[in-house]
Amino acid sequence: MGAIARDRLGLNPTAAPPALAAFVVCAVAVAVSASGVVATSAGVDQRQYHWVTIQYFREIFPRIDIVNVDTATGPLYHLIVAAVSGPLHLGEFGTQFLSSFFAAGLAALAVWYVGIVTEPVLRVLAVAPLLLSPYFWESALWMLTDAAALLFAFAAFVLLLRRESMDGVGCVSAGLLLAAAVATRQTYVWSLVPTIAVIWYQHRESDSGTRLLRVLAVAAPALVVLAGLVALWHGFLPPRFHEMNAANRSWLSPTYCAAVAAVFFVPISLATYGRGRPRLSTTLGAGAAVALPALVWTSSATTGTDNARRGGLIWESVEHTPLLDGRSLLLTLLAFAGGCSICHVLLLLDNTTAILIGTGLIGLAATMTAGGQLYQKYFELPVAAMALIAICALAANGAIERRWPLVGLAALQALLTAALVAGPVITAP
Protein backbone atom coordinates (compact mmCIF):
# COMPACT_ATOMS: atom_id res chain seq x y z
CA MET A 1 0.00 0.00 0.00
CA GLY A 2 1.30 3.49 -0.71
CA ALA A 3 2.83 5.73 1.91
CA ILE A 4 -0.26 7.94 2.11
CA ALA A 5 -2.48 4.95 2.79
CA ARG A 6 -0.11 3.64 5.44
CA ASP A 7 0.01 7.03 7.15
CA ARG A 8 -3.77 7.05 7.25
CA LEU A 9 -3.74 3.57 8.75
CA GLY A 10 -1.68 4.93 11.60
CA LEU A 11 -4.56 7.20 12.65
CA ASN A 12 -7.18 6.19 15.17
CA PRO A 13 -10.43 5.68 13.23
CA THR A 14 -13.71 5.43 15.06
CA ALA A 15 -14.11 2.29 17.10
CA ALA A 16 -17.82 1.95 16.32
CA PRO A 17 -17.62 -0.17 13.12
CA PRO A 18 -15.06 -2.67 14.54
CA ALA A 19 -17.04 -2.94 17.77
CA LEU A 20 -20.26 -3.49 15.83
CA ALA A 21 -18.61 -6.22 13.75
CA ALA A 22 -17.40 -8.00 16.89
CA PHE A 23 -20.84 -7.64 18.49
CA VAL A 24 -22.61 -9.17 15.47
CA VAL A 25 -20.28 -12.17 15.51
CA CYS A 26 -20.77 -12.69 19.24
CA ALA A 27 -24.53 -12.23 18.99
CA VAL A 28 -24.87 -14.89 16.29
CA ALA A 29 -22.49 -17.17 18.18
CA VAL A 30 -24.40 -16.91 21.44
CA ALA A 31 -27.69 -17.62 19.64
CA VAL A 32 -26.29 -20.75 17.98
CA SER A 33 -24.53 -22.02 21.10
CA ALA A 34 -27.62 -21.40 23.25
CA SER A 35 -29.70 -23.42 20.79
CA GLY A 36 -27.37 -26.38 21.21
CA VAL A 37 -26.97 -26.77 17.46
CA VAL A 38 -23.78 -28.56 16.44
CA ALA A 39 -23.81 -28.84 12.66
CA THR A 40 -21.60 -28.98 9.55
CA SER A 41 -18.09 -30.44 9.43
CA ALA A 42 -17.07 -27.78 11.95
CA GLY A 43 -19.47 -29.25 14.49
CA VAL A 44 -18.02 -32.70 13.83
CA ASP A 45 -14.51 -31.35 14.42
CA GLN A 46 -15.68 -29.68 17.63
CA ARG A 47 -17.09 -32.89 19.03
CA GLN A 48 -14.33 -35.24 17.86
CA TYR A 49 -11.23 -33.11 18.36
CA HIS A 50 -11.33 -29.63 19.83
CA TRP A 51 -13.84 -29.98 22.69
CA VAL A 52 -12.18 -33.26 23.66
CA THR A 53 -8.77 -31.57 23.78
CA ILE A 54 -10.05 -28.59 25.77
CA GLN A 55 -11.65 -30.94 28.28
CA TYR A 56 -8.38 -32.88 28.55
CA PHE A 57 -6.42 -29.73 29.34
CA ARG A 58 -8.98 -28.74 31.95
CA GLU A 59 -8.83 -32.17 33.60
CA ILE A 60 -5.03 -32.37 33.86
CA PHE A 61 -4.50 -28.72 34.92
CA PRO A 62 -2.06 -27.50 36.24
CA ARG A 63 -0.12 -30.16 34.33
CA ILE A 64 0.24 -29.48 30.61
CA ASP A 65 0.52 -32.25 28.05
CA ILE A 66 0.58 -31.15 24.41
CA VAL A 67 1.70 -34.53 23.04
CA ASN A 68 -1.17 -36.91 23.82
CA VAL A 69 -3.89 -34.69 22.39
CA ASP A 70 -6.83 -35.42 20.10
CA THR A 71 -6.24 -32.59 17.68
CA ALA A 72 -3.86 -32.24 14.76
CA THR A 73 -3.26 -28.54 15.35
CA GLY A 74 -1.04 -26.59 17.70
CA PRO A 75 -2.18 -26.32 21.33
CA LEU A 76 -2.38 -22.55 21.97
CA TYR A 77 -6.06 -22.11 21.10
CA HIS A 78 -7.06 -25.05 23.31
CA LEU A 79 -4.87 -23.90 26.19
CA ILE A 80 -6.33 -20.37 26.12
CA VAL A 81 -9.94 -21.59 25.91
CA ALA A 82 -9.34 -24.20 28.61
CA ALA A 83 -7.66 -21.64 30.91
CA VAL A 84 -10.70 -19.35 30.70
CA SER A 85 -13.56 -21.86 30.49
CA GLY A 86 -12.21 -24.15 33.24
CA PRO A 87 -12.42 -21.70 36.17
CA LEU A 88 -15.82 -20.56 34.89
CA HIS A 89 -17.01 -24.20 34.82
CA LEU A 90 -18.44 -23.75 31.34
CA GLY A 91 -19.98 -26.71 29.56
CA GLU A 92 -19.64 -27.45 25.87
CA PHE A 93 -22.01 -24.74 24.65
CA GLY A 94 -20.66 -22.05 26.95
CA THR A 95 -17.16 -22.90 25.80
CA GLN A 96 -18.40 -22.90 22.21
CA PHE A 97 -19.54 -19.30 22.65
CA LEU A 98 -16.32 -18.34 24.41
CA SER A 99 -14.29 -19.56 21.44
CA SER A 100 -16.14 -17.14 19.16
CA PHE A 101 -14.14 -14.27 20.67
CA PHE A 102 -11.25 -15.08 18.33
CA ALA A 103 -13.50 -14.66 15.28
CA ALA A 104 -14.98 -11.52 16.80
CA GLY A 105 -11.47 -10.13 17.22
CA LEU A 106 -10.62 -10.99 13.62
CA ALA A 107 -13.80 -9.29 12.40
CA ALA A 108 -13.04 -6.17 14.42
CA LEU A 109 -9.46 -6.01 13.15
CA ALA A 110 -10.55 -6.52 9.53
CA VAL A 111 -13.20 -3.80 9.75
CA TRP A 112 -10.72 -1.46 11.41
CA TYR A 113 -8.15 -2.15 8.69
CA VAL A 114 -10.52 -1.35 5.81
CA GLY A 115 -11.08 2.06 7.42
CA ILE A 116 -8.21 3.29 5.23
CA VAL A 117 -10.66 3.20 2.31
CA THR A 118 -12.60 6.46 2.04
CA GLU A 119 -15.67 5.18 0.18
CA PRO A 120 -18.10 3.30 2.45
CA VAL A 121 -19.24 0.94 -0.32
CA LEU A 122 -15.67 -0.07 -1.13
CA ARG A 123 -14.98 -0.62 2.57
CA VAL A 124 -17.84 -3.10 2.69
CA LEU A 125 -16.74 -4.80 -0.53
CA ALA A 126 -13.18 -5.07 0.76
CA VAL A 127 -14.13 -6.82 3.99
CA ALA A 128 -16.91 -8.97 2.52
CA PRO A 129 -14.76 -11.78 1.00
CA LEU A 130 -13.39 -12.61 4.45
CA LEU A 131 -16.32 -11.90 6.76
CA LEU A 132 -18.90 -13.53 4.50
CA SER A 133 -16.83 -16.69 4.07
CA PRO A 134 -18.54 -19.87 5.29
CA TYR A 135 -15.25 -20.93 6.86
CA PHE A 136 -15.09 -17.72 8.88
CA TRP A 137 -18.58 -18.38 10.21
CA GLU A 138 -17.87 -22.04 10.94
CA SER A 139 -14.89 -20.94 13.02
CA ALA A 140 -17.03 -18.28 14.72
CA LEU A 141 -19.90 -20.60 15.64
CA TRP A 142 -18.03 -23.75 16.65
CA MET A 143 -14.71 -24.65 18.21
CA LEU A 144 -12.14 -24.35 15.44
CA THR A 145 -8.63 -22.93 15.38
CA ASP A 146 -8.83 -21.22 11.96
CA ALA A 147 -10.02 -17.77 13.03
CA ALA A 148 -7.61 -17.66 15.96
CA ALA A 149 -4.58 -18.47 13.82
CA LEU A 150 -5.56 -15.95 11.16
CA LEU A 151 -6.21 -13.29 13.80
CA PHE A 152 -2.60 -13.51 14.99
CA ALA A 153 -1.12 -13.64 11.47
CA PHE A 154 -3.32 -10.85 10.12
CA ALA A 155 -2.38 -8.65 13.08
CA ALA A 156 1.29 -9.19 12.18
CA PHE A 157 0.58 -8.23 8.57
CA VAL A 158 -1.17 -5.07 9.74
CA LEU A 159 1.95 -4.10 11.66
CA LEU A 160 4.04 -4.64 8.54
CA LEU A 161 1.80 -2.40 6.44
CA ARG A 162 1.59 0.44 8.94
CA ARG A 163 4.85 2.10 8.01
CA GLU A 164 7.62 2.12 5.46
CA SER A 165 10.16 0.44 7.74
CA MET A 166 9.65 -1.67 10.87
CA ASP A 167 11.77 -0.79 13.88
CA GLY A 168 13.07 -3.34 16.36
CA VAL A 169 10.02 -3.18 18.63
CA GLY A 170 7.70 -3.60 15.67
CA CYS A 171 9.64 -6.62 14.42
CA VAL A 172 9.57 -8.29 17.82
CA SER A 173 5.84 -7.60 18.15
CA ALA A 174 5.15 -9.06 14.71
CA GLY A 175 7.37 -12.01 15.56
CA LEU A 176 5.44 -12.78 18.73
CA LEU A 177 2.14 -12.62 16.84
CA LEU A 178 3.47 -15.04 14.24
CA ALA A 179 4.68 -17.33 17.01
CA ALA A 180 1.14 -17.32 18.41
CA ALA A 181 -0.22 -18.16 14.95
CA VAL A 182 2.17 -21.10 14.59
CA ALA A 183 1.40 -22.27 18.12
CA THR A 184 -2.28 -22.27 17.15
CA ARG A 185 -1.93 -23.93 13.75
CA GLN A 186 1.57 -25.07 12.89
CA THR A 187 0.79 -24.77 9.18
CA TYR A 188 0.83 -21.01 9.72
CA VAL A 189 4.57 -21.21 9.37
CA TRP A 190 3.64 -20.06 5.84
CA SER A 191 3.08 -16.57 7.27
CA LEU A 192 6.81 -16.27 7.97
CA VAL A 193 7.53 -16.19 4.24
CA PRO A 194 5.74 -12.90 3.43
CA THR A 195 6.82 -11.34 6.72
CA ILE A 196 10.50 -12.05 6.14
CA ALA A 197 10.22 -10.94 2.52
CA VAL A 198 8.63 -7.62 3.47
CA ILE A 199 11.12 -6.94 6.27
CA TRP A 200 13.99 -7.74 3.92
CA TYR A 201 12.56 -5.34 1.32
CA GLN A 202 11.77 -2.58 3.81
CA HIS A 203 15.38 -2.59 5.06
CA ARG A 204 16.97 -2.82 1.62
CA GLU A 205 18.91 0.39 2.27
CA SER A 206 20.02 -0.59 5.79
CA ASP A 207 23.36 -2.18 6.54
CA SER A 208 23.47 -5.98 6.41
CA GLY A 209 23.69 -6.34 10.19
CA THR A 210 20.55 -4.31 10.85
CA ARG A 211 18.72 -6.11 8.06
CA LEU A 212 19.62 -9.51 9.47
CA LEU A 213 18.68 -8.53 13.03
CA ARG A 214 15.25 -7.35 11.89
CA VAL A 215 14.63 -10.61 10.06
CA LEU A 216 15.77 -12.66 13.06
CA ALA A 217 13.54 -10.64 15.40
CA VAL A 218 10.46 -11.38 13.32
CA ALA A 219 11.28 -15.00 12.45
CA ALA A 220 12.96 -16.44 15.55
CA PRO A 221 9.92 -16.67 17.90
CA ALA A 222 7.82 -18.67 15.43
CA LEU A 223 10.75 -20.90 14.45
CA VAL A 224 11.46 -21.63 18.12
CA VAL A 225 7.80 -22.57 18.65
CA LEU A 226 7.79 -24.79 15.57
CA ALA A 227 11.07 -26.46 16.55
CA GLY A 228 9.69 -27.13 20.02
CA LEU A 229 6.52 -28.71 18.66
CA VAL A 230 8.46 -30.85 16.18
CA ALA A 231 10.81 -32.01 18.94
CA LEU A 232 7.94 -32.95 21.27
CA TRP A 233 5.83 -34.56 18.55
CA HIS A 234 8.72 -36.15 16.62
CA GLY A 235 7.15 -34.67 13.54
CA PHE A 236 4.99 -31.86 12.22
CA LEU A 237 1.86 -33.25 13.92
CA PRO A 238 0.95 -34.81 17.28
CA PRO A 239 1.73 -38.56 17.31
CA ARG A 240 -1.91 -39.67 16.93
CA PHE A 241 -2.16 -37.88 13.58
CA HIS A 242 1.08 -38.87 11.90
CA GLU A 243 -0.54 -41.47 9.69
CA MET A 244 -3.82 -39.64 9.12
CA ASN A 245 -2.54 -36.21 8.09
CA ALA A 246 1.13 -36.58 7.21
CA ALA A 247 1.26 -39.88 5.35
CA ASN A 248 1.36 -38.28 1.89
CA ARG A 249 2.54 -35.16 0.11
CA SER A 250 0.23 -32.90 -1.89
CA TRP A 251 2.21 -31.77 -4.92
CA LEU A 252 -1.06 -30.43 -6.29
CA SER A 253 -1.15 -27.76 -3.58
CA PRO A 254 0.11 -24.86 -5.78
CA THR A 255 -2.59 -25.59 -8.35
CA TYR A 256 -5.31 -25.94 -5.74
CA CYS A 257 -4.18 -22.76 -3.97
CA ALA A 258 -4.35 -20.87 -7.27
CA ALA A 259 -7.80 -22.31 -7.98
CA VAL A 260 -9.10 -21.14 -4.60
CA ALA A 261 -7.43 -17.76 -5.15
CA ALA A 262 -9.16 -17.47 -8.54
CA VAL A 263 -12.51 -17.11 -6.76
CA PHE A 264 -11.17 -13.95 -5.11
CA PHE A 265 -8.59 -12.51 -7.49
CA VAL A 266 -10.44 -12.90 -10.78
CA PRO A 267 -13.13 -10.44 -9.53
CA ILE A 268 -10.41 -8.12 -8.21
CA SER A 269 -8.63 -8.30 -11.56
CA LEU A 270 -11.87 -7.54 -13.41
CA ALA A 271 -12.54 -4.63 -11.06
CA THR A 272 -9.18 -3.09 -11.97
CA TYR A 273 -8.97 -4.10 -15.64
CA GLY A 274 -8.06 -1.14 -17.80
CA ARG A 275 -5.86 0.36 -15.11
CA GLY A 276 -2.42 0.28 -16.66
CA ARG A 277 -1.19 -2.15 -19.29
CA PRO A 278 -1.11 -5.79 -18.23
CA ARG A 279 2.09 -7.65 -19.10
CA LEU A 280 0.57 -10.41 -21.15
CA SER A 281 3.57 -12.75 -21.24
CA THR A 282 4.13 -12.45 -17.49
CA THR A 283 0.50 -13.05 -16.55
CA LEU A 284 0.11 -15.99 -18.95
CA GLY A 285 3.35 -17.49 -17.70
CA ALA A 286 2.18 -17.25 -14.09
CA GLY A 287 -1.10 -18.93 -14.98
CA ALA A 288 0.62 -21.75 -16.85
CA ALA A 289 3.10 -22.34 -14.02
CA VAL A 290 0.47 -22.91 -11.34
CA ALA A 291 -1.80 -24.92 -13.67
CA LEU A 292 0.96 -27.35 -14.67
CA PRO A 293 0.78 -29.62 -11.57
CA ALA A 294 -2.85 -30.44 -12.43
CA LEU A 295 -1.63 -31.95 -15.67
CA VAL A 296 1.18 -33.93 -14.00
CA TRP A 297 -0.49 -35.30 -10.86
CA THR A 298 -3.98 -36.71 -10.51
CA SER A 299 -6.33 -33.86 -9.72
CA SER A 300 -9.69 -35.55 -9.29
CA ALA A 301 -11.70 -35.27 -6.08
CA THR A 302 -11.39 -38.25 -3.75
CA THR A 303 -14.23 -40.57 -2.80
CA GLY A 304 -15.15 -43.08 -0.13
CA THR A 305 -13.23 -43.03 3.13
CA ASP A 306 -10.41 -40.96 1.62
CA ASN A 307 -11.72 -37.45 2.15
CA ALA A 308 -8.48 -35.57 1.51
CA ARG A 309 -9.94 -33.72 -1.49
CA ARG A 310 -13.60 -33.21 -0.77
CA GLY A 311 -15.92 -30.43 0.31
CA GLY A 312 -15.90 -26.79 -0.61
CA LEU A 313 -16.75 -25.05 -3.85
CA ILE A 314 -13.67 -26.17 -5.80
CA TRP A 315 -13.67 -29.92 -5.07
CA GLU A 316 -17.44 -30.17 -5.40
CA SER A 317 -17.20 -28.53 -8.82
CA VAL A 318 -14.30 -30.80 -9.82
CA GLU A 319 -16.27 -33.87 -8.76
CA HIS A 320 -19.13 -33.00 -11.12
CA THR A 321 -17.07 -32.04 -14.19
CA PRO A 322 -15.19 -34.18 -16.74
CA LEU A 323 -11.79 -35.72 -16.05
CA LEU A 324 -9.06 -36.64 -18.51
CA ASP A 325 -7.09 -39.62 -17.17
CA GLY A 326 -7.82 -38.46 -13.61
CA ARG A 327 -6.84 -34.87 -14.43
CA SER A 328 -9.48 -32.21 -13.91
CA LEU A 329 -9.84 -29.75 -16.77
CA LEU A 330 -11.86 -27.45 -14.54
CA LEU A 331 -9.19 -27.35 -11.83
CA THR A 332 -6.55 -26.67 -14.48
CA LEU A 333 -8.55 -23.78 -15.93
CA LEU A 334 -9.34 -22.34 -12.50
CA ALA A 335 -5.68 -22.47 -11.50
CA PHE A 336 -4.67 -20.82 -14.78
CA ALA A 337 -7.22 -18.06 -14.24
CA GLY A 338 -6.07 -17.70 -10.65
CA GLY A 339 -2.40 -17.40 -11.62
CA CYS A 340 -3.14 -14.84 -14.33
CA SER A 341 -5.40 -12.73 -12.11
CA ILE A 342 -3.00 -12.81 -9.16
CA CYS A 343 -0.15 -11.67 -11.39
CA HIS A 344 -2.29 -8.90 -12.89
CA VAL A 345 -3.27 -7.63 -9.45
CA LEU A 346 0.28 -7.79 -8.09
CA LEU A 347 1.54 -5.64 -10.96
CA LEU A 348 -0.93 -2.91 -9.95
CA LEU A 349 0.04 -2.88 -6.28
CA ASP A 350 2.81 -0.99 -4.54
CA ASN A 351 5.94 -3.04 -3.93
CA THR A 352 5.38 -3.75 -0.24
CA THR A 353 1.83 -5.00 -0.66
CA ALA A 354 2.71 -6.97 -3.78
CA ILE A 355 5.58 -8.70 -1.99
CA LEU A 356 3.41 -9.56 1.00
CA ILE A 357 0.59 -11.05 -1.09
CA GLY A 358 2.76 -12.76 -3.69
CA THR A 359 5.12 -14.43 -1.24
CA GLY A 360 2.21 -15.14 1.10
CA LEU A 361 0.45 -17.20 -1.53
CA ILE A 362 3.69 -18.96 -2.42
CA GLY A 363 4.36 -19.74 1.24
CA LEU A 364 0.82 -21.03 1.77
CA ALA A 365 0.96 -23.29 -1.29
CA ALA A 366 4.41 -24.61 -0.38
CA THR A 367 3.51 -25.32 3.25
CA MET A 368 0.39 -27.28 2.35
CA THR A 369 2.37 -29.69 0.17
CA ALA A 370 3.65 -31.21 3.42
CA GLY A 371 0.35 -32.98 4.22
CA GLY A 372 -2.08 -35.15 2.37
CA GLN A 373 -5.22 -33.07 2.97
CA LEU A 374 -6.23 -30.23 0.67
CA TYR A 375 -9.36 -28.89 2.31
CA GLN A 376 -10.64 -25.55 1.09
CA LYS A 377 -10.88 -24.21 4.63
CA TYR A 378 -7.09 -24.47 4.95
CA PHE A 379 -6.67 -22.07 2.03
CA GLU A 380 -9.72 -19.84 1.88
CA LEU A 381 -9.33 -17.72 5.00
CA PRO A 382 -5.66 -16.81 4.33
CA VAL A 383 -6.46 -16.10 0.67
CA ALA A 384 -9.50 -14.01 1.65
CA ALA A 385 -7.35 -11.99 4.07
CA MET A 386 -4.84 -11.27 1.31
CA ALA A 387 -7.68 -10.34 -1.03
CA LEU A 388 -8.89 -7.87 1.60
CA ILE A 389 -5.42 -6.31 1.77
CA ALA A 390 -5.24 -6.12 -2.02
CA ILE A 391 -8.66 -4.45 -2.39
CA CYS A 392 -7.79 -1.88 0.28
CA ALA A 393 -4.50 -1.01 -1.38
CA LEU A 394 -6.07 -0.77 -4.84
CA ALA A 395 -8.94 1.36 -3.53
CA ALA A 396 -6.52 3.65 -1.70
CA ASN A 397 -4.55 4.09 -4.93
CA GLY A 398 -7.68 4.72 -7.01
CA ALA A 399 -7.21 1.57 -9.08
CA ILE A 400 -10.76 0.20 -8.69
CA GLU A 401 -12.42 0.95 -12.04
CA ARG A 402 -15.71 -0.90 -11.49
CA ARG A 403 -17.51 -2.41 -8.52
CA TRP A 404 -19.77 -5.10 -9.97
CA PRO A 405 -17.10 -7.86 -9.88
CA LEU A 406 -16.58 -7.23 -6.15
CA VAL A 407 -20.34 -7.18 -5.61
CA GLY A 408 -20.50 -10.55 -7.35
CA LEU A 409 -17.75 -11.93 -5.10
CA ALA A 410 -19.57 -10.73 -1.98
CA ALA A 411 -22.83 -12.24 -3.23
CA LEU A 412 -21.13 -15.58 -3.93
CA GLN A 413 -19.66 -15.69 -0.42
CA ALA A 414 -23.01 -14.79 1.12
CA LEU A 415 -24.76 -17.49 -0.91
CA LEU A 416 -22.21 -20.14 0.11
CA THR A 417 -22.50 -19.17 3.77
CA ALA A 418 -26.28 -19.33 3.58
CA ALA A 419 -26.14 -22.80 2.00
CA LEU A 420 -23.27 -24.34 3.98
CA VAL A 421 -23.73 -22.76 7.42
CA ALA A 422 -27.06 -20.98 7.86
CA GLY A 423 -29.05 -23.76 6.20
CA PRO A 424 -27.78 -26.59 8.42
CA VAL A 425 -28.26 -24.45 11.53
CA ILE A 426 -31.85 -23.54 10.65
CA THR A 427 -32.83 -27.08 9.66
CA ALA A 428 -31.07 -28.81 12.58
CA PRO A 429 -33.44 -30.87 14.74
UniProtKB/TrEMBL annotation:
Source species, domain of life? Bacteria
Keyword terms: Membrane, Transmembrane, Transmembrane helix
| Signal peptide, first to last residue | none
Q: Which residues cross the membrane?
A: 20-44, 97-115, 144-162, 212-233, 253-273, 280-297, 329-349, 356-375, 381-400, 407-426
> Key word Transferase present in the record?
no
Protein name in UniProt: Glycosyltransferase RgtA/B/C/D-like domain-containing protein
What is the organism field in this record? Answer: Mycolicibacterium chubuense
The lineage, from the top, is: Bacteria, Bacillati, Actinomycetota, Actinomycetes, Mycobacteriales
